[in-house]
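Record type: monomer structure entry
Structure origin: computed from sequence
Chain ID: A
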Amino acid sequence: MRLTEAIALYSRWKSKGGKPETARGYVGDLRIFCLWLGDRDAGLVEVGDAIGFLEEMRAIGWDEGTLMRKAIALRGLFSFLRMMRHDVIDPELIPVPHPAFKPPRVVSGADLGKLVAAIPRGSRDPRHARNLAMVLMYRDTGARMGEVLALDVGDVVPGAMKSVVRTEKSRGRRPVREVMWGSEAEAALAAWTSRRAAMAARAPFRDPDALFVSVGNAKHGMRMSGSGVAEMLRRYSAKAGIPAVNAHSMRHKLMHDIVKAGGSAADVMNIAGHSSLASSSVYTMMFGSELEGRYRQLLGKG
C-alpha cells in the first residue's frame, strides 16, 4: 500500500474517532512526510526514514513542539496500519521529541483591559458587537475556544448569565458543565443577539442555530471557526499595542484569578471542566513575580 493510500485510510478512520481539527493537523503532517520521502510503499518505510525526516525538519527551523506533533502523527499512522494487519515498522521505535517546558501564557489584567477597550462600541459593523461578546465570554467563562464557538442561540437564555456547554476534552466523566458570566458580558451578548437576529431576518444564515457566525465574507452565516477567532484576537491585540492574546491565555488568567481569590484546585477543576485535579495543576502554577508575591503574602516574608 502506497503512503498516499495509507494516509487517506488513516484520515477517514481518525476523523470518526476524535476532533476533526486534530485529524486534519495529523494528516497534514503525514502528507509533508510523504512529500519528503516520496510516495513509497508503506511497508518499505524504515525507522531511519522517520528519524531523518524529523532531523531535517529540525535543521530548517521547526521547533520541538511542532516536531513532537509530527512524530506523534507518524506513530499514529503506523499503529493504525499494524492494527489493520499490515507489515510495517514498530511505531514505538519512532522517537518523539520533547520540547523544553514553557510556563503557560497568562494574559495580564492590564493587557486584557486594553484588548477589551480596543473593540469599538456603537459601530455599524456588526462584527464588533459579535467580537466584544465573544471576548467577554472567553474572559468571564474560562471556556475553551471550541466550547464557546459550539454554543447555539438556544443555549443562551436572556438574563440567566449562564449556559451549559459540552466539555470539549471530556473523556466521558464530565460530558457537559455549566459556565457563567457577568453583567458586562450579558449586555454584550444581548447587543450581539439583537444584531444577529436582524441580519438573519434579512437573509437566512447557512448555520441558523450558531450563536457566533461569520459576517461579511465568503463564510457569511456559518459558525465561526477557531482560526477566525485567532485572527480577530490578533487584530485587536495589535490595535491595543499588546502581545497577541489568545482564548487560552484568558482561560489561564481566570483560573489564576480563582486561586488568588482563595479558590481551591477543586474549584479550578469544576470551573475549567477538567476530569481530574492533575489537569488543573497546570492552570494553578505560578512563576516569577507572581510566585514570589504569593510566597511573601502567605508567609509574611517581606
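Annotation 1: The beta strands are 162-166, 176-180.
Annotation 2: The longest strand covers residues 162-166.
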